[in-house]
Amino acid sequence: METSIAARTVRTTETGKAIYERRAVRKYKNTPVDRKLIEQVLDAGRMAPSAMNKQPWHFYVLTGKDTIQAFSREIAAIAMKGALSSGISGIKQVIKAAAGLLHFVHGINLHALKDPVFYEAPVVIFLTASRDNEWAPLDIGMCAQNIMLAARSVGLDSCPVGFGKFVVKTKIYSRLHVPDSEEVHLAIILGYGDESPKAHERARDNVLFID
Predict the structure, then answer these.
(1) What is the largest CA-CA distance in the chain?
(2) Stretch (H or E) spanning 98
């Protein structure tokens, strides 16, 4: 995947190693993550740039196995229900939703059905921001990347979970204590990975130098 000496040099730096070694991991060991370690990666998220330095992010963290599984099942049900309610035009959505929830590209893992959204990771972080902040999606994205890279640097694995935003439609959403002024943008799962996914090939025909 490397095309230059510069690329190989970047890989040898601590930052570069975290960037190149990070993977979306969907299988985790049944090992809890120390709270201090969670706080450490969240602190890295806080260091992300944000528009006008508003630092709009808020973090809602789940670590209880039963609680995580309850939210996972609720979110899965909402996601599938939403796709099914679209009628004939929603057939493709149903297939995509099912593929995403069961992660068909890796084969169906019946064990994961206990937790179809969060893959039995020991930590789930919901990222929110104020609804009236038009730049929040960009800020949240940068914050999330910081969290995932920091996680890799301390020996943790992670995966961004877009389905996390469906939590707002669940019957147990109130348990997160997210105020109405905030919007859930994303969830990130953390833990000690029990798989080693290979890096996907990256497109390299997407750069145009202008003068």
Answers:
(1) 57
(2) helix 91-102
Q: Taking the CA atoms of 168, 184, 122 and 113 in sequence, report the sign of the dihedral they define.
A: positive
What CATH number has the domain bearing residue 140? 3.40.109.10
Main-chain phi, psi angles of 71, to 5 degrees: -65, -40
Total domain count, the chain: 1
- 86 pLDDT band, cuts 50/70/90, is low
Share of the chain above pLDDT 90, in %: 75
Give the torsion through C-alpha atoms of 105, 110, 112, 117, to 10 deg: 60
Please identify which residue in the block is written with the tokens 């202008």: 210
What are the structure tokens assigned to 83, written together?
């796709």
pLDDT tens digits for 108-119? 444 446 899 999
Closest CA to 33 of 195, 190, 193, 164: 190
Residue 208 located in a structural domain: no
| Rg of the chain taking only CA atoms, in angstroms | 18
